[in-house]
Amino acid sequence: MNNILWVAIGLAVVFAIMYNSLINKKNQVENAFGGMDAQLKKRYDLIPNLVKSVKGYMEHEAKTLTEITTLRTKALSGNVSDDDKVALDNALTSKLGGIMVAVENYPDLKASENFNQLQRSLNEVEEQISASRRAYNATITSYNNSVEMFPTNLLAGMLNMQRKNVFEIPETQRENVDVGDLLNN
Fold it and tell me: b/e for 68-103, b at 16 or more Cβ within 10 A?
């Protein structure tokens, strides 16, 4: 009987350690996403200023400016899942990149101190978003390892903890940039 009690206590301790580890990792994922979300919010706050700043110059890109505003509105609506927010962020990153490339065709805009300051702010936010994505992916990987590896996967299954997707950029953003093409425009 004494051995059974020690085995039961040992199993309870192992169970408690695994449970606490899984909850810790789940909370780290939520924290990392919250950090990335805060950076995305900074970007969303800059977008109206960017659109306002370039609108007068870029009549040909009006459709893109409208799409950026629409994506921003969707992202801020509050009715967006984490996965949808990542998809919206991918689309917004692509559109903002297109605007920054198109700026090259507007020398007066490039010379504007307002726009230059805004562009520096946006670049800084983009770097912070990139760092947040890396931290988020590292946290997700640690969480996924715990959810999928034995023996914690057994407890994760009982707690209905599912594997989460890492943040991935779309294929179009993985393509090499043709600097020569950019310089010739």
Answer: beebbebbeeeeeeeeebbbbbbbbbbbbeebeebb
What confidence tens digit (pLDDT) does each residue in 54-67 have? 877 777 677 888 88
For 27-60, the pLDDT digits (tens) are 999 999 999 989 999 999 988 888 888 877 777 6
* CATH code of residue 91: 1.20.1440.20
- Number of domains present in the structure of the chain: 1
Query: What is the rounded (10 degree) CA torsion for 70, 181, 122, 111?
Result: -110
**Is residue 11 situated within a structural domain?**
no
Q: Considering the domain boundaries, does residue 8 fall inside one? A: no
CA gap 78, 88 in Å, rounded: 13
